[in-house]
Amino acid sequence: MSDKEAFTEHDWRRLLSSLGENPDRPGLHETPARVAKAWKHWTSGYDQDPVEVLKAFEDGAEEYNELIVVRNIPVYSHCEHHLAPFFGKATVGYLPSGKIVGLSKLTRLVDIFSKRLQVQERLTIQIANALMEVLEPKAVGVVIKCRHLCMESRGIRAIGEETITSAMLGELQPNLGLRTEFLALARD
Fold it and tell me: What is the CA radius of gyration of the chain?
């Protein structure tokens, strides 16, 4: 990003002023720097490559032919429509076809795509597609359950409502038994 495009502390100061605040008052004096640093972290997924994270290894995997599922993966993201946070949990699973990935890599994959401006539906399919493309498993399943502050704090004010999205790829689409097993494992 060039310096002309970068959103700077000066811009955050202008935002505070436009809201009717004094960016120089003691409580807000350091806020522009903190907010700039926070947004850099919240959008750090753009600088990360999911393929790099999903380095697969084959030793031991060729014999394993059951689902591998990681539940309760934290999701913290921002909606692209209002820049409001949404948060919840993801379940990610796959049925290997000779390749496995370290379990923490599934959490990292969710984190990479979450740290981009998102809609939950796209987030869900991006995670599933990345796993499918890199690991080439027999099946991939992703279920994400989130609360959206754009719904809770404005507009309809649907406090506590959760949005659930899922992506079922490969054998999880036609195989009802496998799909049922994955969804049972995904349930809290």
Answer: 20
118 is catalytic: no
Q: What is the CATH number of domain 56-186?
A: 3.30.1130.10
- How much is the mean pLDDT over the chain? 92
Question: Is 150 an annotated catalytic residue?
Answer: yes
Whole-number pLDDT of residue 20: 96
For this structure, is 80 an active site residue? yes
Kindly name the residue from 80, 121, 161, 162 that is annotated as catalytic. Answer: 80
Flag whether 146 is marked binding. no
Q: Would you say residue 131 has pLDDT above 90?
A: yes
